[in-house]
Amino acid sequence: MKKIIVASVIAICGCSKGSSGEPEKTPAISISDVATREGNTGKNAFDFEVRLSNSFSKPVTVSYSTADEFAKGGEDFVAVSGGTVTIPAGQTTGKISIEVNGDDVREGNETFSVRLSGPVNATISRGIASGRIGNDDTRIAFSNEGFDAPATYPGYSLLWSDEFNGTSLDQAAWTAETGDGCPNLCSWGNNELQYYSGSPNTIFFQDGKMIIEAANEAFGGRNYTSARIKTQGKKAFKYGRIDIRAKLPQGKGIWPAFWLMPENSVFGAWPRSGEIDMMELLGHEPNKVYGTVHFGPGPGSTQISRSTVNAAGALSNAFHVYSLEWKEDQIQWLIDGNVFSTISKADLGTNNYPFNEAFHLIVNLAVGGNWPGNPDASTYFPAWLIVDYVRVYQ
Ligand SMILES: [Ca+2]
Ligand SMILES: [Ca+2]
Ligand SMILES: [Ca+2]
Predict the structure, then answer these.
(1) Does residue 1 lie within any of the structural domains?
(2) Where among 118, 134, 150 does a domain terminate?
(3) 113 has a pLDDT exceeding 80
(4) Which of 52, 114, 132, 177 has an alpha carbon within 20 to 30 A of 355's alpha carbon?
(5) 245 Cα to the center of ligand 3, angstroms
(6) Ligand whose nearest atom lies closest to the CA of 44
(7) What does the pLDDT look like over 148-183, one tens digit per residue?
(8) Which residues belong to any copy of the GH16 domain (predicted)?
(9) d(C-alpha 72, C-alpha 75), whole Å
């Protein structure tokens, strides 16, 4: 009779009976997140704790598997499918150990997940945990392959160059702009999402290159950090040839640009004094480069914009040289020495031609905005704009 009563208790409350003779509660399992550094060599254990809400008189088992997020099984960690962990009777904690592959290459802080299923003698209260592999590296991996410009051109002499062979930004030539454009030009006038933090994580130097990094890192009220540098007040140019050798990033919502703005705005506020966009790329069209001029009476822009497609594929695959050939009443855009757009004074029609004045250079890496659209789940961060040199000939 007593056993029948106990059985009915089990049926009603899902309880079992412990050694004390009191009804015991079926435990609930939860798994905790892990966030730790990647490590630089070998395999490093990321230990996920599984915990029972209460001890139980029988062993508890639960299955687990890993799932890729930006961290990929086989590449960043050792994927597990159908693993099992047992928490012995009377205990409340167990451990799921996932092996993370260490390396010395700078990456984003990538995550994967560990998912619990099929509990025995327990229920699941928190069944998905995040494993965050923290970047602990400083150097990015890239090759120097690609087009390189000649060092000299007939009829030109080198006026100024930055070969980016040092370890910091040349303050005599460049200013790193900070902020989100507010209050005067919030979101830099384009609904861009990044905050130019000015931190060494957003501009760094490696192997004779300047690297601008856009990261999905919250800062200054924005969800992304990046960098923007300009020569305003330090280096301004009128006419000549400008060569910039660079490897461009790609990905939805990634928007690198080399562009020029008027040093003195002698014809008034934008766009009346003009804007020359030497190179722009929208990360979802990684093989296409745009060259544009903005002009006109305003307040909106009148523009002439042309593009060219790199037949060899994404411009992130190799270095290319982006150039302007700029003369009185004419501007040409080139990639790897080939002209893809020519604009002359006559093309502006009855508009004032503002491009026979001095302009300064801007190099930036934007995230999101009206033209490229915003990043999505496919966008890999960090994104890197790798610049080998800027050379100005006259
Ligand atoms: Ca590492
Ligand atoms: Ca790494
Ligand atoms: Ca260089």
Answers:
(1) no
(2) 134
(3) yes
(4) 177
(5) 8
(6) 1
(7) 999 999 999 999 999 999 999 999 999 999 999 999
(8) 151-394
(9) 5
How many angstroms separate the alpha carbon of residue 336 from the centre of ligand 3?
Answer: 17
| Active site annotation includes 280 | yes
* 175 shares a domain with 251: yes
Distance (Å, whole) CA 66 – CA 154: 60
Amino acid at 274: G
Same domain, 178 and 257: yes
Residue 272: CB partners within 8 Å, gap ≥ 6? 265, 295, 296, 297, 298, 352, 354
- 229 part of a folded domain: yes
- Report residue 352: phi and psi, to 5°: -60, 140
The closest alpha carbon to 208, from 279, 142, 280, belongs to: 142
Question: Measured between alpha carbons, how far is residue 101 from residues 37, 65, 79, 310 in Å?
Answer: 11, 17, 11, 35
Active-site pick, 107, 110, 275, 325? 275
Q: Are 173 and 164 in contact (CB under 8 A)?
A: no
Ion ligand 3 — residues with CB under 5 Å? 163-164, 208, 388-389
What is the CA(134)–ligand 2 centre distance, in A?
Answer: 8
Question: What is the span of the domain harbouring residue 322?
Answer: 158-393
Give residue 315 CA to ligand 3 midpoint distance, Å: 18
CATH number at residue 356: 2.60.120.200
Asked whether residue 141 is domain-assigned, the answer is: no
pLDDT band per the 50, 70, 90 thresholds, residue 23: confident
Active site residue 275: yes
Burial label, 15 (beta-carbon count in 10 A; 0-12, 13-18, 19+): middle
Q: Which residues pair with 216 in a beta bridge?
A: none
Of 101, 134, 167, at which residue does a domain stop? 134
Q: Which amino acid is at 101?
A: N
In this structure, the answer to whether residues 179 and 30 fall within a common structural domain is: no
Q: What is the 166 CA–ligand 3 centroid distance (Å)? A: 9
pLDDT for 13: 45
**The total number of structural domains that make up the chain:** 2
Closest-lying ligand to the alpha carbon of 166?
A: 3
Which of 110, 213, 263, 280 is an active site residue? 280
Nearest ligand to the CA of 382 is 2
Distance from Cα 141 to the centre of ligand 2, integer Å: 10
Two tokens at 86?
A: 């047992």
Same domain? 182 vs 303: yes
